[in-house]
Recover the amino acids of this structure.
């Protein structure tokens, strides 16, 4: 099932818990604590036998962290049997972009970076477009597709990234010696 591109995936339903319709929710976000403060879940349901099912928005009655499992146990209004809960397995939990957790200045969402044009700061030469972001632990690495189709890597460090302008859809970079060769 494809998710609505205007929404951001923050979790998924991975199973049931007990016989009264509770669900196991796996966070797919750097901010899992967000689920403790949400009032509703917007569920994008998986297809059944090739048929699309409309999304559902359900009120959260109870949510708690399941220690040691990196999961939340969620009880939703109107879901009160294991059979009803089983029907929601595989659903993606999404939020509108404006409901994402606010980031500190200079920190960006990966989906905001992908698709930005990369421009060499000193010469204004267009180097390519960010195709993907690879988290490496110490810093992210941007995969940039050049105009001639070659995939190159740029470390997302302050030494290289000069300015990210989301409105202009552009990243200005300083190429260190040997980085682009």
């Amino acid at each position: 099932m494809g998710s609505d591109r205007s929404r951001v995936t923050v979790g998924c339903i991975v199973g049931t818990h007990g016989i009264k319709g509770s669900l196991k929710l796996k966070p797919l976000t750097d901010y899992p604590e967000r689920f403790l403060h949400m009032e509703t879940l917007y569920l994008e349901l998986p297809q059944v036998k090739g048929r699309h099912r409309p999304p559902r928005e359900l009120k959260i009655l109870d949510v708690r962290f399941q220690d040691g499992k990196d999961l939340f146990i969620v009880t939703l209004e109107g879901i009160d049997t294991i059979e009803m809960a089983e029907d929601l397995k595989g659903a993606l939990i999404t939020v509108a972009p404006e409901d994402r957790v606010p980031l500190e200045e200079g920190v960006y969402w990966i989906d905001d970076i992908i698709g930005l044009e990369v421009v060499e700061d000193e010469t204004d030469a267009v180097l390519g477009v960010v195709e993907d972001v690879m988290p490496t632990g110490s810093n992210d690495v941007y995969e940039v597709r050049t105009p001639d189709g070659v995939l190159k890597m740029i470390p997302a460090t302050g030494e290289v990234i000069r300015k990210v302008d989301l409105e202009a859809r552009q990243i200005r970079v300083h190429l260190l010696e040997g980085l682009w060769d």
Summary: DSSP finds two helices and twelve strands in the chain. The domain at 110-173 is CATH 2.30.30.240 (SH3 type barrels.). The first strand starts at residue 8 and ends at 17. The helical segments are 82-86, 110-113.
